[in-house]
Amino acid sequence: MDSRSSDTGTAVLVPVKSFDLAKGRLSDRLDPGDRHRLARRLAVGVIEAARPLPTYVVCDSDLVADWAGEIGIGVLEVTATGLNPAITEAAVMAASMGHNRIIVSHADLPLAEDLTWLDREPFDRGVVVVTDRHGTGTNVLALPLNLDPPFVFRYGPGSAELHRNEAERLGLTVRIVHDERLGWDLDTPDDLAAWLADDVRRAGCEPKRTR
User: Fold this and answer.
1) Could you read off the pLDDT of 1-21 as tens digits, one per residue?
2) What is the pTM of this model?
3) What is d(CA 52, CA 11) in angstroms, rounded to the nearest whole number?
4) How far is Cα 127 from Cα 179, in angstroms, rounded to an integer?
5) Does domain 9-200 have CATH number 3.90.550.10?
6) By C-alpha distance, which of 51, 157, 66, 140 is closest to 102?
7) Cα separation, 66 vs 19, whole angstroms
8) Quick one: which of 94, 134, 147, 203 has the fewest CB in 10 Å?
């Protein structure tokens, strides 16, 4: 067993929408069945990239919770709606389970291979913001738990800078990381077109090495 899995206080949180609602902005390019399968395959790739760290799917859907249980992943089923409230609720749950740090990763990162480096020096302290490929969004966010006052999640337009400001408000060190793999997400038709045009698509949407 990898030694990181036995003594880490870090949990990886992967928020997953109801698969029936996932990737709605790709409806002009993909039919509902394809969007459903794409969302599940992308989420599995991100979950695999988090191993061996303790990993939990964050959801408000019984069907997603059942799916996570079927693939052997822990579930933090939240009542809050919206990404920021859901992650806030899940972070409290993770802290109550004894975790002292979380890595929050979007579930739609097709090239994700490894998230565990965020649990190693020098990225295992303070706040780490891994941006999207445009440098403005937050694809992965790592931060300590049990903060007083608590960290306020700022997902949405310009979230990378907003998360930097939030870390500075709390007096925490902050690193902004631009990672070629983790910077790719599939959210809009433009994302999908760019992904295909750059020839980084892989069969079954599984994360593999590019050429």
Assistant:
1) 232 333 459 999 999 988 775
2) 0.84
3) 10
4) 16
5) yes
6) 140
7) 12
8) 203
C-alpha Rg value of the chain to the nearest Å: 16
pLDDT tens by residue, 95-133: 999 999 999 999 999 999 999 999 999 999 999 999 998
What would the two tokens of residue 171 be?
A: 């007096």
pLDDT tier, 47 (very low <50, low <70, confident <90, very high otherwise): very high
The token duo for 5 is: 């899995």
β partners of residue 143? 102
CA-CA distances (angstroms) from residue 69 to 2, 49, 55, 76, 130? 23, 18, 12, 11, 28
| Predicted local distance difference test score (pLDDT) of residue 143 | 98
Q: How many CB atoms sit inside 10 A of residue 69's CB?
A: 12
CB 129 within 8 A of CB 176: yes
> Tokens standing for 82?
């919206």
Q: Degrees (nearest 5) of the Cα angle 11, 132, 24?
A: 90
Q: Which amino acid is at 140?
A: V
Of the candidates 26, 6, 78, 75, the residue with the CA atom closest to the CA atom of residue 193: 26
Record the tokens describing residue 197, joined without a space.
């045009």
Residue 138 in contact with residue 48, Cβ under 8 Å? no
